[in-house]
């Protein structure tokens, strides 16, 4: 099989490429240049796709004796990930840029180019597993190491993309084993720290970064009953569940802290309230995709049981889901409705919910609304 190994410069992708070589595949390494600041250097474990990362990927490819290329995807990354991130915050939602990167860059733009060049599959260092059935259909499943499982951020992959996805780390029992293997192979990245935070905001100051790109206008902070509490410098810099940075001069009657319950960008209003009002029991999602063939019940619009996960490292919770057609202002839209068996706290529009049955990833949707059991947002005018 002709395999294009996406090499980020980290230990996982280096070992994944090595295993692809060991399996006898014809492997070519490629590093995606996503940053528009080519002089940027990695600081500790923040950020990725830097000059240092490119050099680390090259060294690993050289040790493996495979061809290595750097592809400039910076413009596509800016349009599909960075600009989308800004637009979502401007609309009062909290996006997940890693989901967009996997969807639109690594498994859309990269895979599209790989197939055009005659490759059979794209290999990455993600911890997830693709299972192929006798009829040729594919399913996406959690990795053996649940602590490192990355199936959540791959929930955006379609059945066609799964046909060309190759995850050599799927059955690895732990990250420690991957590092040990990298060390045994002599890879310099064996002890390189994992990247975290948003790669295009390497200092971790998301609010400061957004304030340079979104026009912030002072507006009202109100409580869950509609009472005016004070002013904010710009609603777009807040997110549901946030506690710090509200700077409300009037304490709550019970003396307990307040949390952001809702952001209303059209009204430039931030709604706050007690922590227990962050609990929701119904999620409605848009931009639905299925990781493999959809369940017959989902296609028929029938309710089906599942587990739902709303963050990369969150525990999944039991739920029941169904797909429905909703009409608003004469426009029909398909929605995924998920009723939770127990409440989730601090769920924000813009987050991704991924559905599971056992270890199998069913699909995903972008959360459009989250309903509280105890609070009706329409009470705030």
Automatic annotation (TrEMBL):
Residues reported to bind ATP: 6-13, 32, 125
Checking Gene3D superfamilies in the record gives:
Adenine nucleotide alpha hydrolases-like domains, HUPs, Translation factors
InterPro entries attached to this UniProt entry: MnmA-like (IPR004506), MnmA-like_C (IPR046885), MnmA-like_central (IPR046884), MnmA-like_central_sf (IPR023382), Rossmann-like_a/b/a_fold (IPR014729)
Q: Which domain of life is it from?
A: Bacteria
Give the Enzyme Commission number: 2.8.1.13
Q: Which SUPFAM superfamilies match?
A: Adenine nucleotide alpha hydrolases-like
| Keyword GTP-binding attributed | no
**Record site: Interaction with tRNA:** 126, 351
- Per UniProt, what is one GO molecular function of this protein? methyltransferase activity
Q: Name one GO cellular component term.
A: cytoplasm
> What is the annotated localization of this protein?
Cytoplasm
Keyword terms: ATP-binding, Cytoplasm, Disulfide bond, Methyltransferase, Nucleotide-binding, RNA-binding, Transferase, tRNA processing, tRNA-binding
Active site feature: 101, 199
| A biological process term (GO) from this entry | tRNA wobble position uridine thiolation
Residue intervals of the tRNA-specific 2-thiouridylase MnmA-like C-terminal domain = 283-367
Reactions accelerated catalytically? S-sulfanyl-L-cysteinyl-[protein] + uridine(34) in tRNA + AH2 + ATP = 2-thiouridine(34) in tRNA + L-cysteinyl-[protein] + A + AMP + diphosphate + H(+)
Q: Name the family.
A: Belongs to the MnmA/TRMU family.
| Protein's job | Catalyzes the 2-thiolation of uridine at the wobble position (U34) of tRNA, leading to the formation of s(2)U34.
Q: Which PANTHER family does the entry link to?
A: MITOCHONDRIAL TRNA-SPECIFIC 2-THIOURIDYLASE 1, TRNA 5-METHYLAMINOMETHYL-2-THIOURIDYLATE -METHYLTRANSFERASE
Q: Which HAMAP family match?
A: tRNA_thiouridyl_MnmA
Identify this protein by name: tRNA-specific 2-thiouridylase MnmA
Q: Which organism is it from?
A: Zhihengliuella halotolerans
């Amino acid at each position: 099989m002709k395999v294009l190994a996406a090499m980020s410069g980290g230990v996982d992708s280096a070992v994944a490429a090595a295993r692809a070589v060991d399996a006898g595949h014809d492997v070519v390494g490629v590093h995606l240049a996503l940053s528009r600041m080519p002089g940027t250097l990695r600081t500790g474990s923040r950020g990725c796709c830097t000059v240092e990362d490119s050099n680390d990927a090259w060294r690993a490819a050289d040790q493996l004796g495979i061809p290595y290329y750097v592809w400039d995807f910076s413009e596509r990354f800016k349009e599909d990930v960075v600009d989308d991130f800004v637009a979502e915050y401007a609309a009062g939602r909290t996006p997940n840029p890693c989901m967009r990167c996997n969807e639109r860059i690594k498994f859309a733009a990269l895979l599209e180019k790989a197939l055009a060049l005659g490759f059979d599959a794209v290999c990455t260092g993600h911890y997830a597993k693709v299972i192929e059935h006798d009829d040729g259909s594919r399913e996406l499943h959690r990795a053996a190491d649940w602590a490192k499982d990355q199936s959540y951020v791959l929930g955006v992959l379609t059945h066609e993309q799964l046909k060309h996805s190759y995850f050599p780390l799927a059955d690895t029992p732990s990250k420690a084993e991957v590092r040990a293997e990298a060390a045994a192979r002599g890879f310099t990245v064996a002890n390189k720290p994992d990247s975290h935070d948003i790669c295009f905001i390497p200092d971790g100051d998301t609010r400061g970064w957004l304030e340079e790109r979104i026009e912030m206008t002072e507006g009202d902070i109100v409580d869950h009953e509609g009472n005016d509490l004070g002013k904010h410098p710009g609603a777009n810099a807040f997110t549901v569940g946030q506690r710090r940075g509200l700077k409300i001069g009037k304490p709550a009657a019970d003396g307990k802290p307040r949390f952001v319950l809702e952001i209303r960008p059209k009204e430039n209003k931030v709604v706050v309230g007690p922590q227990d009002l962050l609990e929701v029991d119904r999620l409605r999602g848009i931009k639905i995709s299925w990781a493999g063939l959809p369940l017959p019940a989902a296609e028929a619009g029938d309710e089906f049981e599942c587990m739902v996960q709303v963050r990369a490292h969150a525990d999944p919770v039991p739920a029941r889901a169904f797909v429905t057609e909703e009409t608003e202002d004469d426009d029909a839209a398909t929605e995924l409705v998920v009723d939770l068996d127990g409440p989730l706290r601090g769920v924000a529009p813009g987050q991704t919910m991924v559905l599971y049955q056992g270890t199998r990833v069913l699909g995903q949707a972008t959360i459009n609304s989250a309903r509280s059991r105890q609070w009706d947002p329409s009470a705030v005018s």
